[in-house]
Amino acid sequence: MTASMEDSRTEPWLPWAGLLLEAGAQRLLISSVYVLIFVYHTRRSLPVYRASWHQERIFTLTLHILSGVIELARYYLRATEGTVLPDIMDTILCLIHSLTTLRLARPLLRGNETTRAAYQAPAIIRPILAVMAIVRKDSNLHGAVVKLLHAFLYTRLLIFASKRIRLTKVQSQSTIYAQSVFLGAVLAIESSGLPVAVAVYIGAVGLVMVLNRSVSNHLSRSREAVKSSSRLYQLIVQSCLWVGLTELSSIKAHEPLALASCANDEYTDDKTAGGDKKDPQSRRLLKQD
């Protein structure tokens, strides 16, 4: 095993944890934090989602959680034995997780106008890196791809910390959510060890926002203008609409039911939600999020 492989395998999941914890202790800490998050966050949120979301969205969320958990478990269990090389199952799990991320972010009302793109950009980048890793049989790149999943963990920890330090007194909760999603992704990318990856991510978020606007502009054109486009172009635009790579206004105009059951809570920007608020009981329960 080369020194670079060894360094990648023991890359700290927290940027500052490598000085304090060995690889085994890091894995134990990761597992413990995920368990705490699922016990105190996901366990309380899922009943609310089940009550307000339609069955397809619940199925998508379940598939999203399972694919992420299995991908992480497969990697860290094999890491106890040495270098982890990617296989086809890793790639399939990554593709499932990314596709479900796009579908879940599609009607997202939380945060601000950058939040959906902050979720969408990694969902597009991760499968590309996963395919590169399996083609090149690159254990370092494979480890980095898996560690990008820790963005979920960082985001929840940042939201939790923001509440504990009373940041809500100076910023809206929708702003805190948007900042936590973006910074959570940045921390996960930094811990992955990929060179210049943070800059690539920031650029990708901007490009996704441009793509969303472009697709939205096309969807707002007249029927005659749309029909004059090539079949391939129309297929690409409709595919973007299906996965959510367009602005919320277009989704609301073309598929209003997609937004009807989306979580609308204290993390939602009133302007984004269009002033539509859920009942007080659902909002109180979702404050556990």
Give the CA-based shape: globular
Please give the alpha-carbon distance between the first and last residues.
43 Å
For the residues shown, what is the average pLDDT? Answer: 83
Tell me the number of structural domains.
1
What structural class should be given to the helix and strand makeup?
mainly alpha
Number of strands: 0
SSE order in H/E notation? HHHHHHHHHHHHHHH
Structure, described:
Keywords: Membrane, Transmembrane, Transmembrane helix. With 289 residues, this protein is mainly α. 72% of the residues lie in helices and 0% in strands. The chain has one domain. The protein is built from 15 helices and no strands. The longest helix is centred in the first third of the chain and has 30 residues.
